[in-house]
Amino acid sequence: MEAAFSGKLETVYRRYVDEDGNAISILQDIQAEFGYIPEEAINSIARMTGIAPSMFFGIVTFYTQFHTRPRGANIITACCGTVCHVKGAQRIISRIHDELRLKEDQDTTRDKLFTLEKVNCIGACSIAPVVVVNQKVHGRMSPEKMARELKKCRERTDA
Amino acid sequence: MISLTIDGREVSVFEGTSVLEAARILEIDIPTLCHDPRLKPFGGCRLCIVEIRGMARPVTACTTPAIGGMVVTTTSERLYRLRRTIIELLLSDHPNDCMVCARAGDCTLQEQAYFYKLRLNRFTGEMRDHDRVDANPFIKREMNKCILCGLCVRVCDEVQGVNAIDFAFRGFNARVTPPFEKDLDCEFCGQCVAVCPTGALTGKVWAGEARQKDVKMTDTVCSYCGCGCNITLHTVRDRVVRITSRPDTHNRGWLCAKGRFGYEFINHPDRLKTPLIRRKKGGNLEPAAWEDAFDLIAGQFTRIKEESGPDALGGLASARCTNEENYVFQKFFRAVIGTNNIDHCARY
Amino acid sequence: MPKGVTVNVCMGTGGIAGGADEVLAAFREELSRNSVEGRVLEKCAVHQVGCRGFCARDVLVDITIDDERTTYQYIRPDMVKRLVSEHIIGGEPVADWMVSDEYHRFHDLQKKIVLADCGTIDPEDIEAYIDAGGYRAITEVLESRTPAEVIDEVRRSGLRGRGGAGFPTGQKWELCAANEADRRYIICNADEGDPGAFMDRSVIEGNPHSVIEGMLIGAYAVGSDSGYVYIRAEYPLAVDRLRLALDQARAKGFLGPDILNSGFSFDIKIKLGAGAFVCGEETALIASIEGERGMPRAKPPYPADKGLWGKPTIINNVETWANLPPIINNGADWYAGIGSEKSKGTKVFALTGKIRNTGLIEVPMGISLRDIIFDIGGGIEGGRLLKAVQTGGPSGGCIPQQHIDLAMDYDNLLAVGSMMGSGGMVVLDESDCMVNIARFFLEFTQAESCGKCTPCRLGTKRLLEILTRITEGEGRKGDIELLEDLAGDVRDTSLCGLGMSAPNPVLSTIRYFRHEYEAHIHDKHCPAKVCRKLLTFFIREDLCVGCGMCRKACPTGAADGKPKAPHHIDTSSCVKCGACYDVCKFKAVLKE
Q: Looking at chain B, which residue has its C-alpha nearest residue A66?
C-alpha cells in the first residue's frame, strides 16, 4: 500500500522533473490518480520537488477543480451559468439538496454515494437548465426530472 | 536618470524606481499597507493609488515604474475618497478590538482609520471567523485581524526562504495559513510578526505587556552570536518587554528566533550578574567582586603555567563573542599564555 | 444504389446530450444493414448545438447525396430508419422533418469568417483543413514576408482583441516585438469562463487548426519559438481535439524546428486551467501557467514587456487567433472593409436566454441588436416582451430594450455601460428581475475574486450583501446610492479587470432599471415576480382539483387541504420555497 502510494507519486514527479512551473499539472495528475488530493501526497511531492507544501495547499484551495476530500460515487454537476440561472437552476439545486439531505455547505453525502458540485457554465446554454450526472449532460432539467435521475443513480449504485 | 513631476515638484531618479520611491525621495507621504521597501511590490491593498496624467484610472504607486516626463498627483479629492473607501472596506471585516489589541497605538490600519476619520462604517456585513488558536509557543495568530497585505507571506519566502505560510482559498475566504490550516511549524524567526501592519501577528512572549506609550526604546546589539544584529530593547521600568530591530540597520531589521523572542534571560532571577568564587574546598560558590575574580584567574593561570608549562592550559571561545573579541582571546592564549590550545564552540 | 452519401451528425456536448451519439450509431447500423456505401461522419461539432449554431433544433443531421445537402432537425434515433429508407435509399427527402425557413433566416444575416469552416470540415483531420485552404497563410508568410510586414498587415486590418477589452492586436504585437529579449512567448487564452459564453470552445472544437495557424503567424511576427494554449479543463472535447490537431500539425511539419525549411521554429504546449475565472485575466493566466495561484499582477509592466517568466509575451484569445489566417489570405483591406468604423471584422456571439433560436452566431461588427434578436434569433421565446440584453457576462452590463437599434461594436457597448466581453449574449424578457440578475453576477464575481486586492475582495462581498438584502425585502433607504458609490470605487481601485468590471452589472441595471430597485426597497415588491421572499403564494380554488401534489411537496405543511377539494396555502407558515408552484400541473398555484 505504502509502496504503491509513493510509486504513483514518483511516476507523477518524473513526468515533470525537467521543467519549472508545473505545480498545477502535478496536482492535476495526483487528483487523476487518487480521485482527490490526499494530504500525504502533498507532503511527499513537496519533498520530491522542493516546492513548499504551503504553496501546494494554496494552489489546491485556489482552483475549484481540486478536492482535498474523497468524493462520492456519483458526481452531480449543476450548471449555474447565466442562462441556467434565469431558467431555474436554483430550484433544481435546492431539490438536489433536499433529495440528498445535504446541508447548505456540504457537497458530499455521508454515505459517499453522491457529490454535488456547481460549475459556472458548461456552455450548453441552449438546453438550459443543465445538470451533468456522471459526465452525461442532461438538458432542459426540472426539479422532478432531477429527482428521477437521482433515484436512478441510487438504484444503479445499489445494484 | 529620468525626471518626473510629483505634485508639481520635479525629481530625478534612476530608471526602475517606482513612483512611490520617487515620491518618498521628495518626502511626499503616500499611505501604504502592503508595501515594504525590503520586499517585492505587491499592489494588493490599493491604498497608494495616485493619478498619472494620461491614464484613465488611478494606479498604485508601489508597482508603477517611474517614466521620464510623468506627471503624478498624489492627493486629490477623488483619491481621498477612494482611499477612504478602501480603509472602510478593510474595517468592515476587522474586529473593532483596538482596546485590547497588542498593536493599539502601533498599528498602520488604526492610524489610517484615524487619518481618514472613520468612525461609522457604511458596509456592515459578514465578518471572517478565523479565531482558531495556534498552539506554537511564539507567534500569536489572530487571522480575523489579517488584511491580506501578504507581507508575512513575502518575507517568509523572499527573506527567510522557509515558505511556512502562503495564501490559501480565495476571495472573501482567502487567508494566510500554514499547509492544511495546521499549527505554524517553522523556524519562528518572527519576521512575519515584524512586518505585520496590524494585530494579526504578534509575539506570544510579549502578550499583555506594556502599551507602546510606556515603553522606553534602547538601541543595542544582540548578544546571541557574532553577527551583531542591531536590536532595539523595549523596556518598562528596566524590564525588557519586547525586542524589535530597525529596518535601517545592517541586518535590515531581520532577526532570528533567539534574537527576537529569546530575551527572557535578561530579567531572569537565575541570571548571573557577578562572578562566583568557591573560596573553600567543598564550599558554596559565593558572589565576588570582578577584581577578586580576575586576581584569582590570573594567579591560578600563572601558577599552572609555571608548574606544568603553557600547554597545560587551553582556551574555549564563544560564538556569542564578536570577531574582535575572539581575536583578542586567541592572541592572549598564543602570545601571553604561550599555547596553541585554543578552540571555539562554533566548531562543534 | 446511390453513391457518395454523407451523413453528418452534429456531435458536441449538448448534441450528445440530445442523443447525437445514439443517432450516429443508429445511422451506422441502419446503413450497414442496408449495405449502403455511405460515410457516417461525426460532423465537426461547433458545440452542443451542432454544426450550424442552430442550438434550439438539436439533433441536426445533414444528408448529402451527390453534393445535394438536406438538413433535418430534431432527429431522434427512432427516426433514422425512415431517413435511410426514404431519403438515402429511396431518394425522396423526408419533407416533414426538414429544417424550416427559420433555419435559413438564422444564417442569412451572418457573416462567417472565424466559423466559416466550423461545421463543414472534420476537425480531427488536418487534410480537411488543408483542403479548405488551411496553412496557406503561414506558408505564404514564411516564404515571402518579413515579420514587420506581417505586423503591419495585422495593424492595418484593424483587428482588435476578441477577449473583451478590444486592444488593437497589431499594436500589441508591435510593442512586444520592439522589446530586446532572448525569448518571447505566444499564449492563446482559451480559459473562457464567462457564464453564457462558449464561442472559444466552439472554435477549438470545430476548427482547431485555424487557431494553431493564427498562433504560428503571431509567433513569426514577434519572433517567438514557444507558445501555450491555456484551456479550461471543463472542455474535454476541445482539449482532445486540440491535442490531436497539435500532433497532426507536428507530423506535417507545421510545428517544430525549421518549419517548412524556413529556419523558423515554433511549438505549442497545452496547459489545463484548473477552475478559476480570474485566470482569464492575462497576468493571472501567466501566474497560472507558471504554476502558481492565479493572482493577477500589477500592470504596468504589461505582458508585452514582461510576461511569462519575465519575457515579452503576446496573449490573445482563441477568436483573435482564428481571425489571422483569413486576414493574411485576403489582406488587411478586405478585413478593414467589414464592420464598423472603429471595430473591424466580425464577432462571434453565443446567443442564449429567452430567445427562440439560441445558438452560436457570427455577425459583422456594427450590426444592430434588433437584427440579432428578431431576425437571427427569431424573437423572444413564448411571445413575451424583450426587456434587456446582457452582454459581456459578469464584466458587462444590461442593454435595455430602448437601445435595441444600437450598432454592436466595442465603443458603443462601452457607451451604454456594457462591454463586448468575449461574446456572451443573454436575452432577458419581462419575466426576469434585473436586481436578481445583478445579484447573480455579483455572486459570481464575488466567488471568483482571487482575494488579492481589497476593493475586489471586500467590495464585491459588500455589493453582494446589499443586493441580497434588497432582493430579500430588507433593502434600506439609501441602498441604491450606496451601491452606486461603492460600485464606482471598486471599479476605480481594483487591481485587475475582474474587479474593475465586476460593478458593471450593478451600475448598468441601476442606470436603466432604477424603478425596479425602488420597487424592491420601498414597496417590498418584485415587479418580475422572481424574488421569492417578496412573493405571496396562493391557490386559485377554481383551478385546484385537490390532487395533493402541493401538499406533498410543501416542506412546512403550509399547503394543505382535503383530497379532491381545493387546497389552500397558510401564508404565516409558508417559507416561499416555491415547491407548490413547481409541482402544480393545473397552474392553480399563483404568486404575487
A: B169
List Cβ neighbours of A18 (8 Å cut-off, separation of 6 or more). none
Q: What is the CATH number of domain B2-75?
A: 3.10.20.740
CATH architecture label of B212-271: Single Sheet (2.20)
Q: Is C418 on the interface with A (CB under 8 A)?
A: no
Q: Given CB atoms, is A54 within the 8 Å cutoff of chain C? A: no
Fold of C535-591: Alpha-Beta Plaits (3.30.70)
Peptide bond into B155 cis (omega under 30): no
| β-bridge pairing B9-13 and B49-52 | unpaired
* Chain B residue nearest residue A56, CA to CA: B179
Question: Which of A11-25, B18-32, B68-82, C93-107 comes out lowest in average pLDDT?
Answer: C93-107
Which chains contact B through at least 3 pairs of Cβ atoms less than 8 Å apart? A, C
ipTM associated with this complex: 0.89
Question: What class is the C126-336 domain?
Answer: alpha beta
Distance from C-alpha of C542 to C-alpha of B274, rounded to nearest angstrom? 103
CATH class of C434-522: mainly alpha
**Domain C346-429 bears CATH identifier 3.40.640.10:** no
Contact C276 A58 (CB under 8 A): no
C276-323 tens-digit pLDDT: 999 999 999 999 999 999 999 998 889 999 999 999 999 999 999 999
CB count within 10 Å of CB A52 equals: 20
Please name the residues between 122 and 161 in chain C that touch chain A, using a CB distance below 8 Å: none
Domain ranges of chain C: 5-99, 126-336, 346-429, 434-522, 535-591
Cell of C434: 434585473
Asked if the domains C126-336 and C434-522 are classified in one and the same CATH topology, the answer is: no
Distances (CA, A) of A95 to A90, A92, A141, B135, C432: 9, 5, 12, 42, 21
CATH 2.20.25.90 intervals, chain B: 212-271
Closest alpha carbon within chain B to C449: B171
Global confidence as pTM: 0.89
Verify whether the Cβ–Cβ distance B43 to C495 is below 8 Å.
yes
Q: For helices C504-522 and C479-493, give the axis angle rounded to 10 degrees.
A: 170
